Structure formats: structure tokens, C-alpha cells
Amino acid sequence: MFFSVVIPTYNRLPILEKCLRALENQQLDPQWIDGYEVIVVDDGSTDKTIEFLEREKTSFAHLVLLQHDHRGPAYARNIGVSNSRGDHIIFIDSDLVVTESFLLSHAQALAKAQSKLGNDCVFTYGAVINTCNFTDPTSEAYKVTDFSAAYFATGNVAIAKKWLEEAGLFDTTFSQYGWEDLELGVRLKKLGLKLIKCPNAVGYHWHPPFSLEQIPSLIDKEIQRGRMGVIFYQKHPSWNVRLMIQMTWLHRLLWGTLTLGGNLDEKAFAPLLQWLIDQGKPQLALEIARIFLNWYNVQGVYQAYAEAGGKS
User: Fold this and answer.
1) Looking at the chain, which terminus has fewer C-beta neighbours within 10 angstroms, N or C?
2) Domains of the chain
């Protein structure tokens, strides 16, 4: 099989470089892989991403660079798929650093699953390990918090191109943060595709250590995710989707109680979070911050739902 690795990116040059160098250092086996290309779709970056990639293009033999104005990851991934040569697509994010056996692991898992099932109605979902270690991201150990129960998430997934085309690619109505990949997953599930876990295809998802300065942007993401969640629900109005986007009385009660109706907000939590950060526990601080971040998300969901004419 021939892989097209599709990577949307927006202002992530330092970690993107590590991502691309890891993809150039793959251990291939012609029994499983005919070849591959790495399609970077720049979503209007302003951090000299384009200048760097054009200057260093001889270092990235598999790179195909595409550009467009800032329109979000759904549009960027569609552009990548539409311009791909591969019969199979791998989606990763531009802050993911993979191991040397990444492509081979996906290829072997796909081929074995197809042989076992007698059809190609499968896709593989690799492991994603979160890390704050920029110098050596692949040294991070797997943690309980790295577990994901998602059916189709574009952080590390491989799928035959024809299924993406049959499902209709990503819905570009999801122009803000969140849900465009899981919504496509609902359509893929309706086509009968089976998820195959592929733990050997490991990607290390880098993000900077949590700090209080990140809180405003994290809150904005949660509000955006709430808005996009309502679009998700409007397309697939089911109880399962309501649970996914936190649009239930259970979520309202849970996060409302834990934040005392929103009164325990980012300002109230700030001293505790800063103390944990000073103790060298930024990840624990982030997990605690999710208490009020989830409240912002739930509020964003219900506000967007009301604006769309729904009833809470």
C-alpha cells in the first residue's frame, strides 16, 4: 500500500520540524509498503513555516507542501486528501512525533485485519502519548490519562482513501475547534467500518507545560468546542452525541456542582494551580483546571443550542 500522511498545520513550526524529521526516518518493508508521501497543508501560518519548509525542502524527500488561507483543520485535511496519491491516508497532527516503525505498524495492522475479515472495511487507530518534553518527546511513558475511547480521531489514524471519499470527507461547517473528526467517524461507522487498535503505531503528542497564561486560550477552545458540538448534534441528533458533547443534565449538574455554579472559576483556582506548577506538577494542575474548563464547555454548548433555536 502507498500511504499519504496528511498533516494540517497552523503556527507550529518548532514541533512540526520534529514531526517531519521523524517521518523521514521510517523503517520500511516493501512487503507491506510501496511508498509514502507527507502532505503538509499549511492553514495560513504566520510563523515562517512556509519559508522554513521551502528552504529545507531537500531535507524532506517525501514532503508535499500545500497552502491556503486560514480556514480550519477540516478544510485543510480535505485539501490534503484531494491532492493525495496514496490509496491509504494517515492523519496525524503537526505536533505529533512518531517512532521509526510508525508507518510499518499501520500497514501491517491494516493488512492483517483485511485478511482476517475478508474485506477492507477497517481502519487503524494508533496510540497517542501526551508529553511536555520537547527535547526528547518519544521518551515519555504511557499514562492512564493517554487512554482514548474515540472511534475515529485524526491524531493518529490510517484508512483507505476510498472510504473517506465515500463518506464525504470532513464537514467544513466545523470551522472552529472540535468534533470534525468524530462527526466523520459517525458517518464511517454507518458505512460499516471496523476500528482496529494499533498500539505499535505510536505518536507522541507534544504540548507545552501547563501555565496560567494558557487559561484564556483554553477557555476559548472550550467555548468553541461547545459551539461545534451543537453542529455535531444537529447533524446526528442522538443521545450518544449528547453525551459526547456534554449536552445533558448530568454534565450540567456535575460541573455546576464542582464549580459552585461557575463561582469556582479560573481566578478561584489560580493559587492552587500555580502552587502545583511550582511543585513541578503542571499536568496535575491541568487536570484540575479541567473542572472549570468543562463548565465553560457546558455553558458554551447550551448557549449555542439556545441561539440555534433549541430548548435546554
Assistant:
1) C
2) 2-206 (3.90.550.10), 212-307 (no CATH)
